[in-house]
Write a structure and sequence with these properties.
Elements lengths: L1 H14 L1 H29 L11 E3 L2 E2 L25 E2 L4 H10 L3 E9 H4 L3 E5 L2 E5 L2 E4 L3 H4 L4 E3 L11 E5 H8 L8 E4 L7 E7 L12 E4 L4 H8 L8 E6 L4 H10 L1
Parallel strand pairs: 7-12, 9-11
Antiparallel strand pairs: 1-13, 2-3, 4-7, 4-13, 5-6, 5-10, 8-11, 9-12, 10-11
Length: 262
């Protein structure tokens, strides 16, 4: 029976070659597009899922009071898709405000703040053995960075890699690029921001996965940033940092309500 059906189908294909070819190409293109969409969506959904505390991590954002309730974008035919998501927030936060928030709410277990230098200057110049390197992904982070995020350290400990102001953590790729080996603990480098200070490598981190929204080549302690020190000294709110909260389990909704009121 099946053989008969196959013969009839084959004869039909041969009898209507043009029509059959159009149908086959159409189905093939449709299937290919569906597969591409599936792969793309799965890739987007995989971002930051590797963090072991992913269900307890939240980014602090500040509502822009002047544009509250507005998107800041011109209305279009598809404006209805943004309904309910019209609040404009500032993604950059202040470490001093984050510290106040941590003391104010028992639902918060930890907070980490970090600055992505590429957003401010585009790149950072690094000097190693009289050679200059231009690096795109340079972060300035506090001591909780490796305790909250699941970025494994190949060398060094998450609890003391930033114990000194002149420490620095480099990625595996950077360690090989600068020194040709991963055994780089104790080696030194300099930055263009402060060429008079030597930074000692205290840790080597595994390269950030492709599906991480945080990418890094070098991570310096927050206290080593001249801008951060100046802001702290003058008690200014340095609004150049991302602030990530780690909540106690099942406390996120309660914390959100309290934060909005606060």
């Amino acid at each position: 029976m099946i053989k008969s059906y196959l013969k009839i189908a084959w004869r039909s294909l041969l009898k209507n070659k043009s029509f059959s070819l159009i149908n086959i190409i159409g189905v093939s293109v449709s299937v290919a597009i569906c597969i591409l969409f599936f792969v793309y969506i799965r890739g987007e959904q995989s971002f930051d899922n590797f963090h072991s505390k992913k269900n307890q991590l939240f980014r602090l954002e500040i509502t822009n009071g002047e544009t509250s309730g507005k998107t800041g974008k011109a209305n279009s035919f598809f404006s209805f898709l943004r309904k309910g998501d019209e609040q404009v927030n500032n993604l950059l936060f202040s470490p001093s405000i984050a510290e106040e928030i941590q003391h104010a709410f028992t639902e918060i277990k930890n907070i980490t703040c970090f600055e992505d230098e590429s957003l401010l200057t585009g790149a950072e110049l690094i000097k190693v053995n009289n050679q200059l390197f231009k690096e795109q992904h340079v972060l300035y982070a506090d001591s909780n960075f490796f305790k909250i995020f699941s970025f494994p350290l190949v060398e060094g400990s998450a609890y003391n890699v930033f114990s000194l102001r002149n420490n620095v953590v480099v990625s595996e790729s950077i360690a090989r690029k600068y020194f040709g080996t991963l055994n780089v603990l104790g080696k030194t480098l300099q930055t263009a921001e402060d060429s008079s200070e030597l930074f000692t490598i205290s840790g080597v981190a595994a390269d950030a996965p492709y599906n991480s929204s945080i990418q890094y080549d070098l991570i310096f302690p927050m206290q080593s940033s001249q801008g951060f020190r100046n802001a702290s000294k003058q008690r200014f709110a340095d609004m150049n940092y991302f602030a990530i909260v780690e909540t106690d389990k099942n406390q996120s909704e309660l914390l959100q309500a309290k934060l909005n009121e606060w």
